[in-house]
Amino acid sequence: MLRQAMPGPITSRHNPMVARYRAAAAGTLANAMLVDGLHLVSAALDAGARIREAALAADRDDDALLSLAGRLQELKVSTVRASGPVMKALSPLRSASPVVAIADRPLGAEPAVYRATPLALLAAGVQDPGNVGAIVRVAEAAGATGVVAAGPCADPFGWKALRGSMGSALRLPVLIRGELSVAIEEARVHGCRVVATVPRGGRSLFDADLTGAIAILLGGEGRGLEASLADAADERVTIPMRPPVESLNVATAAALMVYEAARQRRARSTGQREAPLG
Q: For 120, how many CA atoms within 13 A lie in the half-sphere containing its CB?
């Protein structure tokens, strides 16, 4: 049991570790991210992320937590048990997870994002962390080569976005670029056509050529892409919608775009006719 494997639990919310975990949750702990929950901590270990430290609930000793504790100890991760009130202080969730950890952020993803024939998603100013996480998740699911969070975009390694990606951000190459212009130029340097998603006036998604090296540019919630950015793209694409619907959630738009691109690529590689889905 956990109580046999580790010293007595931490019971004070004033323990110095609480400040570290809160800084990690706020994104102010250098080069660190907060990984919250059994699934995400396990995914981080599977992805080879370096876990700096972990805290386990003192009142839990089920098989899943015991197994995870064993993995952490084998890797010599500094691991402590904590009381319920302390776990609530460590975890930003309303209902505290049984395990919370601080891990190093992934670094050096640029070559991987643009490997082979790139299919990259550029999230431009997507401010909701749940949407950013969902974009990363669908990008991995559809076989994209990576995601770039550009401009005033939510942190893809923030705890909310990590939970939204269900661990995909720990496996799929993800870049952060403060300036959208830098992200677009970087994509072009790597040979990508920039395809902007616009709510109206673009080529239909099902008529657009999404094969070859492309970077799909997605605007933020509300205003979407600035007109100047859309106009500067190599192609503007619109997802057909029946009225009175005027727009889609950005993560939904990302899913439709990346899956259509993946479908076209498969069809071209196998010589099949590129019929739209549905």
A: 35
The pLDDT, as a whole number, for residue 6 is: 62
Do 94 and 210 have their domain in common? no
Structural domain of 36:
2-104
CA angle 138, 141, 142 (to 5 degrees): 85
State how far the Cα of 259 lies from the Cα of 67, in Å rounded to an integer.
Answer: 36
The predicted pLDDT at position 5 comes to 55
CATH code assigned at 164: 3.40.1280.10
- Of 40, 70, 104, the position where a domain reaches its end is 104
- Residue 277 domain flag: no
Confidence of residue 270 (pLDDT cuts 50, 70, 90): confident
Phi and psi angles of residue 53, each rounded to the nearest 5 degrees, phi first: -160, 160
Model confidence at 231, pLDDT cuts 50, 70, 90, reads confident
CB–CB of 266/277 below 8 Å? no
Pull the structure tokens for residue 246: 């005027």
